[in-house]
Amino acid sequence: MNAKYPATAPQQPAAAGDGPQAMTPSEAFVETMVANGVSEMFGIMGSAFMDAMDIFAPAGIRLIPVVHEQGAGHMADGYARVSGRHGVVIGQNGPGISNCVTAIAAAYWAHSPVVIVTPEAGTMGIGLGGFQEAKQLPMFQEFTKYQGHVTHPARMAEFTGRCFDRAMAEMGPTQLNIPRDYFYGQIKTEIPRPQRLDRGAGGDERLNEAAELLAQARFPVIISGGGVVMADAIEACKALAERLGAPVVNSYLHNDSFPANHPLWCGPLGYQGSKAAMKLLAQADVVVALGSRLGPFGTLPQHGLDYWPKHAKIIQIDADHKMLGLVKKISVGICGDAKAAAVALSQRLAERTLVCDATRAARADQIATEKAAWEKELDEWTHERDPYSLDMIEEQKRERTFNGGEYLHPRQVLRELEKAMPEDVMVSTDIGNINSVANSYLRFNKPRSFFAAMSWGNCGYAFPTIIGAKVAAPHRPAISYAGDGAWGMSLMETLTCVRHNIPVTAVVFHNRQWGAEKKNQVDFYNRRFVAGELESPSFANIARAMGAEGIVVDRLEDVGPALKKAIDLQMNHGKTTIIEIMCTRELGDPFRRDALSKPVRMLDKYKDYV
């Protein structure tokens, strides 16, 4: 750190909206970020933005260097999802920027207000095939809500401010593209004041229609989606649910959108979700989709249950009008803020007699009964039951190769981790077989606690995301889940934790395979395994070599104590810990049953491969 500019003593910023002032474009860029509350950003330093980077510290901005720019993008995503503020990522033009594409796509599907700053080749060299030159706007056009390209140095503050405003207004990533020579020179400019939307509840006519439907409902159910978290609408959702006596189910991968300790909570929908939630939703005659786009993957049949209520009337509430009725046929669509809309509906229902009031007690009993039955099933569901999984369990018993340990059943491990979770925990999960099964076991009482790659479903997401979340909320315990495949794409960011004192806990399920795809080869390709095996050294040993703590768990009774020890090291000693859990090769339900079918071969040379 340059001693002249200690990060702990930021200088007085130029006040936004105070009129034009003389400054450099770099100063305009930095001051506009300060006006938008930026205090941390993630990336790898580069010559393309070094003039601006030189003044980050006196402005009070900490640039956190990472190992790989994809990790930086995920960290910005996690930071934004926990804080409710912008996450910012920056990198060198060309390859540094292209490394971020996957992470920005994940942020797009999570509706995270991430701003990616993409310094570009200089204007006098564009089109000549110079060093690290690339067309950087097309790379991100599918995964950004807005792309601001600085067309003149004097417009630096204007485009920077617009990118920050649009990220919040449109609930997704924006791109600020800056030719590298535009950081230099002298300009006269005004730092724009941030503009934030005050979203309303929606139109009175639609709200009245929705209230009338709910007043006549016999079995209303609320789906609480990601919009409830983003709108800080948990209490409003609770009030609406309590007025209706309605069961509340979490939309897919939004397990933190309603508190699990509330008697009306029923668990998540979607892949490996709660049977209680699905059985109760199946009975609905009116469904309130609050802050949910009702994504197609999140409502697929599961556990043998085709649970979507095909004859129910659907009230969908979303801040983005384009989502209304996009996936499911709806009866009423309300374009509005989840919190404001829930409050408005509760007000309309407060003085009315509701048909569902007559069956409130019976419905409460049914909710409790279904939840208890599901919890009992989870307790008894100790291992996967398909023939291949049973064969693998027996095979691994015979091939035990480590001292006195056992290969553990993933479901038992997940249950023990659930029991050992600390209060106020934040958890991120990667994509993959065991991580997806975790959907049944992850419960939260506080919003902004659960993070997944959503519809993008990329490997290598969870660990860097929880690092960004920890930066935003250092007082909260932070845990990531990853299989050994996804861990191989992200373990290098352990160095970021160690180098920059960002303590987190990573749980790695080591089963030596690409489990989700291997399950498809079991079910559809007659167990012809291609490229699915992942023989690896000890991840705990690798963690120790990087300067972190490493714990190997090969006994079920050690799972909970290992997590508690790691959290103690994280919260009280500032240490990152990698918990390596030795798991069996048993496999859960196929991840993409909807996308596969039995193969048909036309050529004789392949006739046996059906």
Automatic annotation (TrEMBL):
EC number: 2.3.3.15
Domain Thiamine pyrophosphate enzyme TPP-binding, chain residue ranges per copy: 430-581
GO biological process: isoleucine biosynthetic process; L-valine biosynthetic process; taurine catabolic process
CDD domains, alphabetized: TPP_PYR_POX_like (cd07035), TPP_Xsc_like (cd02013)
Residues making up the signal peptide according to the UniProt record: none
UniProt superkingdom: Bacteria
A cellular component annotation (GO) from this entry: acetolactate synthase complex
Domain Thiamine pyrophosphate enzyme N-terminal TPP-binding: 23-137
GO molecular function, one term: sulfoacetaldehyde acetyltransferase activity
Cofactor(s), by name: Mg(2+); thiamine diphosphate
Ranges of residues in domain Thiamine pyrophosphate enzyme central: 207-345
Keywords for the protein's UniProt record, in alphabetical order: Acyltransferase, Magnesium, Metal-binding, Thiamine pyrophosphate, Transferase
Family, similarity comment: Belongs to the TPP enzyme family.
Protein's UniProt name: Sulfoacetaldehyde acetyltransferase
Lineage: Bacteria, Pseudomonadati, Pseudomonadota, Betaproteobacteria, Burkholderiales
